[in-house]
Amino acid sequence: MWPLIRRELDGMVTISLKKSFQTYTVFGLVLVLLMWLFGPSAIDYLEKDLISLLIFLIGMLSAGMNMLSVMEDDAASKQLAFLQTLPVRESDIVHAKFLSTLLLGGFIFVWVSVLVSANLVINDVWTIESWMVVFLFLAVLVLLMAGNLLWYFCRGGLHNGWMNYLLLVAGALVLLYLGFYRPSGISQPFLYGMSLGFSVLAYLICWWAATTRVNKKGFPKEVDDPEREKMKEHAEELKRRYAERQSEKNHGK
């Protein structure tokens, strides 16, 4: 199964993903430095909690859009159909997808934790309790991954990504309410720990449900995104027209 996991990770960690993480990292550090330069009370929209929220949203967006891109590519190239031709169990294919996605989520969590820690340290407000808000981000991230994976193994693709976008919006609202509105009467460490425990349980349930579904009914038929196919056809048409114009110019000479 480990070769399958390495294969999944190779597909996830593309050049475009590396470039996007570099961009997000620079953007996050710029936000932290602006906070340090202007101070927490100089400009309201540079308040430290808002910067942490922006870092969380960037991390969620990068994870969600990467999953959408990878799964759309898999559906377009019929990866599930190809993997079934290999001498591996169907359940191992599901396990490899869930494990590799979990590893990618761990990388994003570490990246977000470093940026949030830098924000708290620079503003001299770092404490264990204030830092524990990153576990709320991890909880939302795990739910995002679980929902996308279960939908993928039930439908054979993310189909325009509406489920991914719905999960992103819901996750952003949860982060805003629980992490920064902070409902009174509930201990923050308890709230974050409970949220993370619930998310891990949901991830395991989705994992079990996807494996059970595949064992009983097999993999769903992979369907490419119609809009993606239209874009490919449009790109091919533009290439053809360009080639015709170049040919006409050459003949004119």
UniProtKB/TrEMBL annotation:
<feature type="transmembrane region" description="Helical">
    <location>
        <begin position="21"/>
        <end position="38"/>
    </location>
</feature>
<feature type="transmembrane region" description="Helical">
    <location>
        <begin position="190"/>
        <end position="210"/>
    </location>
</feature>
<feature type="transmembrane region" description="Helical">
    <location>
        <begin position="165"/>
        <end position="184"/>
    </location>
</feature>
<keyword id="KW-1133">Transmembrane helix</keyword>
<protein>
    <submittedName>
        <fullName>ABC-2 transporter permease</fullName>
    </submittedName>
</protein>
<keyword id="KW-0472">Membrane</keyword>
<dbReference type="InterPro" id="IPR025699">
    <property type="entry name" value="ABC2_memb-like"/>
</dbReference>
<feature type="transmembrane region" description="Helical">
    <location>
        <begin position="98"/>
        <end position="122"/>
    </location>
</feature>
<feature type="transmembrane region" description="Helical">
    <location>
        <begin position="50"/>
        <end position="70"/>
    </location>
</feature>
<dbReference type="Pfam" id="PF13346">
    <property type="entry name" value="ABC2_membrane_5"/>
</dbReference>
<feature type="region of interest" description="Disordered">
    <location>
        <begin position="218"/>
        <end position="253"/>
    </location>
</feature>
<feature type="compositionally biased region" description="Basic and acidic residues">
    <location>
        <begin position="219"/>
        <end position="253"/>
    </location>
</feature>
<keyword id="KW-0812">Transmembrane</keyword>
<feature type="transmembrane region" description="Helical">
    <location>
        <begin position="128"/>
        <end position="153"/>
    </location>
</feature>
